[in-house]
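Build the 3D complex.
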Amino acid sequence: MVRAALVVVWLCSAGAGLVWLMAYDNTAGMAADAPARWPAESALARNPDGPTLLMLAHPRCDCTRASIGELAELLVRVPQRPRTFVVFIRPGGVEGAWEHTGIWRQASRIPGVTVIRDDDGAEARRFRVYTSGQTLLYDRDGALAYSGGTTGARGKAGDNAGRSTLLELIDGSQPRRAMLPVFGCSLFSWSKPQTKEQAAADAY
Amino acid sequence: MRTSFPAVNFSYSTAPSPESVETRANAVFRGHQQAIYEQTDRMFAYLMGAQWLAGIVFALLVAPRTWSGADSAIHVHVWAAVILGGIVSIFPAALALLRPGETMTRHTIAVAQMLMGALLIHLTGGRIETHFHVFGSLAILAFYRDWRVLVPATVVVALDHALRGIFWPQSVYGVVFASEWRWVEHAAWVVFEDIFLIMACVRGTRELREIAVHTAILEQANRDSARNTIEQGELIARLRLTQQQVEAATRAKSEFVANMSHELRTPLNAITLYSELLQEIAIDDNRPDDVADLGKIQTASRHLLGLINGILDLSKIEAGKMELHLESFGVRPMVEELIGTMSAVVRNNNNTLSVHFENDPQVMHADLTKTRQILFNLLSNAAKFTTNGSVSVGVARRTAGGIERIEFAVTDSGIGLTEEQQRRLFRPFAQGDASISRKYGGTGLGLALVWRFCQLMGGEVTVKSTIGNGATFTVHLPATVRAAGETATATAPEAAA
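Done.
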């Protein structure tokens, strides 16, 4: 009887642990409050003749490997590649080639992708992005068409709503703007302001 | 599941009870099964530990830290690998080590193995390769040879897929939108493997039962064999003791007979000599009645002397004191001399006597006296049991197996012998039957001595006969009797014919 009770307790503990882990992986990061139009102060050059795709990423966030992998998958599938930037944040105070990680190299190997270092998260602040893997799509007119991630959960590669939506937006089969969750590490330090209001205030 | 025993043919000389074999087979089967359960439990205990460690390594390799700007901390997956992996592994591993072989232990292990699969899949980012852990685990669970453990394992997999399919379909199917019944497809593949694993378990269990039955049978046979060996050993010991007693008694008897024979011969010789002296006096005194009476005394004395001499010879042989006096002599002269001596005896019953030399027998090296005695006894017998018939002696020198032998065949056309008579013919004091002794006289020692003399010289004597059609006694003696034969002791003549 005691052992049966122990088995039940064990089973519940293990089951609860797995459910918690599943829930954690499926909990989205802080969504971007991206400007509706391409910010003029951005150092990045928007494509005036077509859509511009932008992914803000943390170079040391392992979940972002899956996001960049899905970005590569997306670019293979689109009929005509948009101008694409992967912007890796480099927080202030870090030393050396802090941002030159495997994830940086992974992004650099994607044909047609421009990899840029974002010192102290200046571009991330301009685009009001807080979570690694946040992807923004602006159309040829500079209007925001998509804001969200390219994976369906933390670090999980595979078919997902973000990638499918982006594909449809780029090939024009979906005309409406879409906002989806993003899964990844925080771009900014826990010790820095984390609320959208604080981040926005910090950016401007 | 209760599996019936395979049909086994219980055919034994000692006829063991099938019930006892089946009871023992059941015990052996349960022992083997329990040993398999316990061994597999221990294997899983180590596997649980290894998987726990592997999960931590995976987590450290795939996502060691989580980041927030320049700050970092240990990734949640690492903590999950350590804590959740520990929860999943430690309890079943402890059961496996503390309660090996129990039903609850292996069922808990089956569930744990599937939970560990789910955790590992998660920690490796849902890689398709890690899903093979599920199928591999099912195969490893089949080590138990208990198909029941596959049931909770399969239920856990199906439940995991069903729940995740509802709440987080991408985590399990890799697609955003999936049918709510897609878990059935996944579970069906697991069941597909289960079917073959169940077949393997059932087959393994059946083989285990067959091994148990054969082991029980073998044990029974070994027990019987051991018992028989002990019984045989006891029998041999008793026989050896009896043989020693018989040999001692025989030696004592032979010594007694030899002594008695000697003591009898001394006065008998005196009787014979004095009766001869008295007969000569009676002849001189012309007392024919006394001469006849004294002749009867002499005849009786000689008969008695012959009998005593025969007994003495037999006793010497049985006591191992009979010696051979080997010499070289011509066979033909010896036979012809004997024929000359015996012709009158043979012709007494109106018989004819002939001798035939198939080839030149040349010279043989043997005991002349005993060789002559052999032929004398055979011719005496032939003459005794043949009336108005024929007695013949055939002599030949033959080579067989590189050994030269002299063959003497004494054939008569007398009364012949039955098979039963032939079987005990060469035993001492055994004639064909009691009526023969009464009708034809004799002591039954003649052929017994023939047998023993042949044995002493490394030869043999055989007889062929049918009742009413005479008999042929054939003696084979080595042309050169070996000196070693001088010490040979005659064996009991049980079936000389």
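The first strand of chain A starts at residue 52 and ends at 57.
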